[in-house]
C-alpha cells in the first residue's frame, strides 16, 4: 500500500511546485462543477468535492469565489468532460482527464503529446479497466486505530486504511467519498492532507532507468496541456 500512496504523494508534490497552473485548472473545474447545479457546495456535491480538493492545494479564496461568481453570472462557456487512454514506454498505462470547450483541439494536443514523447493513444477502455476509481483521504490528526473506530461507528464501508509516515490514509469506493469525509469531520478532523477522487492502478510496473526520463517527459507534456486536469499512470519508481 505504501508504494501506491507514494505515487499519489509524489504527484501532489510535483503539482504543488506549479501553483499558478494548478490554480488555473482548479478555477475551471470549480466553474464547471458550479454550473452543473446550484453554485452552493451544500446542495451541489460535485462542487463540494472540488472545493475540498482545492483546500488541500491551498487554492486562494479569491480564485474560488471568482469561479463561482462566474457560474452564477450565467456565462455561456460550455465545457465537456473527456477521458483519454494511452500507453507509455515499457508497458506503462496512462489515463488523461480533461475539461474542454473544443474537443478537436484537445484530442489533437493530447495525441501529439503522446506521439512526441514515446507514447501512443489507445481506444476507449484499453487502459481504464486496469484502474479503480477510488476516494482517498489523508489525515494527520488521528491514529490508525482511531480512524478504524470512526469508520466502524459511522457504519462506513472503506476499502483500506493504513499508516504512512505522513499520517493515516483511507481508500474507499467513490460513492463513499462524502460518507468518509463526514464521518471524519464529525469526529473532529478539520484538515486533510489529501481529499481526492482518483484512478488508482490495480498493479504497477517498474520501467528501466534508461527510459524513466522519457516517461517523465511524457507525463509532464500531458500535464502541461491547458485542457488537461488530471493524469494517472501505473508506474512505480520505487521507494
Q: What name is given to the CATH topology of the largest domain?
A: Alpha-Beta Plaits
| Corresponding CATH architecture of the largest domain | 2-Layer Sandwich
- The count of β-strands is 8
CATH homologous superfamily placement of the largest domain = YebC, transcriptional regulation domain
Q: What profile does the largest beta sheet have?
A: 4 strands, antiparallel
Please give the radius of gyration in angstroms: 18 Å
Euclidean distance between termini CA atoms: 12 Å
Helical run tally: 8
Strand content: 15-25%
CATH class designation of the largest domain: Alpha Beta
Gross morphology is globular
Order of helices and strands: HHHHEEHEEHEEHEHE
Strand order of the largest sheet: 3-1-2-8
Average pLDDT value? 89
Q: How many domains, in number, for the residues?
A: 3
Structural class: alpha+beta
The share of residues in helices is 40-55%
Low-confidence stretches: none
Structure, described:
Helices cover 45% and strands 22% of the residues. It has 3 domains: 2-72, Arc Repressor Mutant, subunit A; 80-129 and 202-233, YebC, transcriptional regulation domain (Alpha-Beta Plaits, 2-Layer Sandwich), CATH 3.30.70; 131-201, YebC, transcriptional regulation domain (Alpha-Beta Plaits, 2-Layer Sandwich). The chain is built from 8 helices and 8 strands. β5 (160-164) and β6 form a beta hairpin. The strands form 2 sheets. The chain has a 4-stranded antiparallel beta sheet with strand order 3-1-2-8. It is globular and about 50 Å long. The mean pLDDT is 89. The chain has helices spanning 2-17, 19-36, 45-56, 61-72, 103-116, 144-154, 177-186, 209-223; strands at residues 80-87, 93-100, 120-122, 131-139, 160-164, 167-172, 194-201, 228-233. It is of the alpha+beta class. One of its GO terms (molecular function) is DNA binding. Keywords: Cytoplasm, DNA-binding, Transcription, Transcription regulation. It is found in: Cytoplasm. Belongs to the TACO1 family. YeeN subfamily. Residues 3-74 form the TACO1/YebC-like N-terminal domain.
